[in-house]
Amino acid sequence: VQLQASGGGLVQPGGSLRLSCVTSGFNFDYYAIGWFRQAPGKEREGVACISSSADDNTYYTESVKGRFTISRDKAKSTVYLQMNSLKPEDTAVYYCNAAPIKPLWWGQGTQVTVSS
Questions:
Q1: Which pLDDT band, with edges at 50, 70 and 90, does 54 fall under?
Q2: How far is residue 30 CA from its own chain's centroid?
Q3: Who contacts 83 (Cβ-Cβ below 8 Å, separation ≥6)?
Q4: Which of 49, 68, 87, 93: CA 20 to 30 A from 13?
Q5: Which residues contact 95 (CB under 8 A, 6 or more apart)?
Q6: Is residue 58's pLDDT more than 80?
Q7: pLDDT: is 16 or 101 the higher one?
Q8: Cβ–Cβ < 8 Å for 71, 79
Q9: If pLDDT is split at 50, 70 and 90, which confidence band does 105 have?
């Protein structure tokens, strides 16, 4: 099983990034997939989640509602996180995993830095 996050970078406040989570080795349509982030000195937190391909319901932590959008591409077994109106407090390493989390499925993550 692999979940590889990419697309991070350095962006100014108010800017946008799109993260990608390319998956393999499991039934992509069956699992809910979430984006998580960990800022320096803080615990990892859930950011957004999309349910299985059966209904594609989405859920967001309060701090990103209206700014972030999670989506999935079944043909590419990929989940995206479109991040708009980025704030310095969004700075973190972003990871993807199943939801509920499967501890052995963590990948390396991708760094997002929001700074002027």
A1: confident
A2: 18
A3: 16, 17, 18, 19, 64, 67, 68, 90, 112
A4: 49
A5: 5, 35, 36, 37, 38, 44, 106, 107, 109, 110
A6: yes
A7: 16
A8: yes
A9: very high
Would the CA dihedral through 5, 9, 13, 17 be positive or negative? negative
Q: Which amino acid is at 23?
A: T
Which residues, including other chains, have CB under 8 Å from residue 86's CB and lie 6 or more apart? 11, 13, 14, 15, 16, 17, 67, 112, 114
